[in-house]
Amino acid sequence: MNFYDLSIIATLSATFAVVCVYIFLYSLYRQTYIGLWAVFWLVTFGSQILYRTPLQEMSKPMIMGVQVTQVANYVLLVFATCKFLDIKMSKGWYYWALIVSIIANITFVVAPPLLLVGAMPTFLYIAYIYFWLGWMFIHHLDNKGWGKIIVGLAFIGSGLHTLDMPFLLSVTWFVPWGFLISGTLRFIIAIGILMLYVERNFRDLASKEEQYRLLAENAADTIYLYKLKPTQEIEYVTPSTKNLTGYSAEDFFKTPNLFLSLVHPSDKALIDKLISDPITASSAPMTLRIIRRDHTIIWVEQTTVPIMDDSGTCIAFEGIIRDTTARRELEQNVSRLDRLNTVGQMAANMAHEIRNPLTTVQGYLQFYLKKPDFSAYIEQFSLLISELDRANLIIREYLSLCKNKSRDLKPMQLISVIQDIYPLLKAAANASSKDVLYYPEVTPTIYLDEKEIRQLVLNLVRNALEATNHNGVVTIRTYEKDNDVILAIQDNGTGIPQHILDNIGKPFLTTKENGTGLGLAVVYRIAHDHQAVVQVDSGPQGTTFNIKFKTD
Fold first, then answer.
1. DSSP 3-state of 71
2. Contact, 526 vs 409, CB < 8 A?
3. Do 425 and 385 touch, CB atoms closer than 8 A?
4. 222-323 and 410-550 share one CATH topology?
5. Positions of E strands within 218-296
6. DSSP SS3 for 447
7. What is the rounded distance in angstroms from the CA atom of residue 392 to the CA atom of residue 358?
8. Could you tell me if 267 and 256 are in contact, meaning their C-beta atoms sit under 8 angstroms apart?
9. Measured between alpha carbons, how far is 409 from 453 in angstroms, rounded to an integer?
10. What CA–CA distance (Å, rounded) separates 37 from 191?
11. In whole angstroms, what is the distance from residue 155 CA to residue 37 CA?
């Protein structure tokens, strides 16, 4: 075996190894450009087998076939590389490939002695492809490092070597070295592109991992991974657990049983079922209570996904926990309002039937109260009459809160409504040795239902007067701020307790011994009907109710 044969065998071996690598990569990733690269190197491998036959000894059809195949193969290389670089391939590559093939084949047919001259367009076209690829890899590939420089220079070196082939192909001693140089450059190109592909995949993987990490760590919901085997413990939990439970992720890692200890005792059976049979328990979201670090109880909804090993055994499960306390409270409030609506409808239907006997009873009690024969029962009769008055008050407030009635909205000044009822408010305050002060300010005209706004002001001022001590003062202000018309009613009482403030506006919530808990509910209903917002500011120096009406 001579040096010529050894050089070809070495080149074929290197090319075949590259083909195997790309076929393996394509079987793993199914990327189009990897498959095209594999085809390119496979065709290159086949053409190199023909190098064992000197060019002068090949038949004319074989030379023409090799010529066309080589040109098409390098167009395929350009197409695959454009896919890899994520750029659009110009149609000019196809046109020039066709022109080069036609010129070369015509030359072979017309002037066979000018074999190398006829092959020159093909060599020039392939060399240009090499130069273009080298330039694209060096200047247009976004990879960092020396990898793209090495690949680019190898392409440029292959282009230079392609240009010298027509002149050195007839130099017998150089031909084996030419094969080795060509094979080495191609091997460097193949391995370099492979490294760039792996680098790009690694970078994309790192980028996606960073994105997923940011999504997980910045998610409002708490995401965790609970391992069942070989030991039961939290393997991962997002930082949002701090807001949910009050404990940091490090606390869960340090104390494996911390997760289970937070579950409310009444709901531990749900977690025990999840751990014992994750597949069945994961079929539907789970609602349970969690005891936070500050000992407050919150409601959460948990969705879990079991993780299986190769044998089908559940070894862990992933969970997503969402705080549903606010939603649950809203549902409870809606339920209360539904019940209140039902009560209101019943009260509306039965108001006259109830009031008639009450009026009759109250009339007779007042009649007997004036009789001397019943003078010994004045205290009892007075108590009965006051209780009947209270029953009438409850019925009236039920109706005011719950019955649906059409609003009569008209453009008007808020101060005109308050000024009309100000004497009534002043008289009510003076009767209890208190005072009401009004500081009017002209505001833009807004759409109001005068009767309902009167009811709103009366309820708030009445509550404010009851919240103040002897000689207390209630202040009413109207003004404009940030395109809103503000009605502010302030008292100088002791403030509203926090547990009441957190639930203010809910029906039946009251601190008064004889209160119905419907006054503020009426206020919130009227504000809602006027698309206004109620804000409460309370402290030891008093409480201020701010009603914000939109001007547009």
1. helix
2. no
3. no
4. no
5. 222-227, 233-237, 286-291
6. strand
7. 8
8. no
9. 11
10. 12
11. 15
Rounded Cα–Cα distance for residues 517 and 508 (Å): 4
Residue owning tokens 């090949």: 58
What topology is assigned to 222-323 in CATH? Answer: Beta-Lactamase (3.30.450)
Encode pLDDT of 425-481 as tens digits.
Answer: 888 888 888 999 999 888 888 989 888 888 889 888 888 888 888 888 999 999 998
DSSP 490-501: EE-SS---HHHH
Band of pLDDT at residue 191, cut at 50, 70 and 90 = confident
The tens digit of pLDDT for each residue in 242-264 reads 888 999 888 888 887 888 889 99
DSSP 355-372: HHHHHHHHHHHHHHHTSG
Tell me phi and psi for residue 282, to 5 degrees: -85, 0
Residues with Cβ within 8 Å of residue 77, at least 6 apart in sequence:
36, 37, 40, 129, 133
Cα angle vertex 406, ends 401, 412, to 5°? 100
Domain borders along the chain are 3-214, 222-323, 329-402, 410-550
Report CA torsion sign: 275, 278, 281, 286. Answer: positive
Q: How many CB atoms lie within 10 A of CB 252?
A: 22
Q: Class of the 410-550 domain? A: alpha beta
* 0.70 exceeded by pTM: no
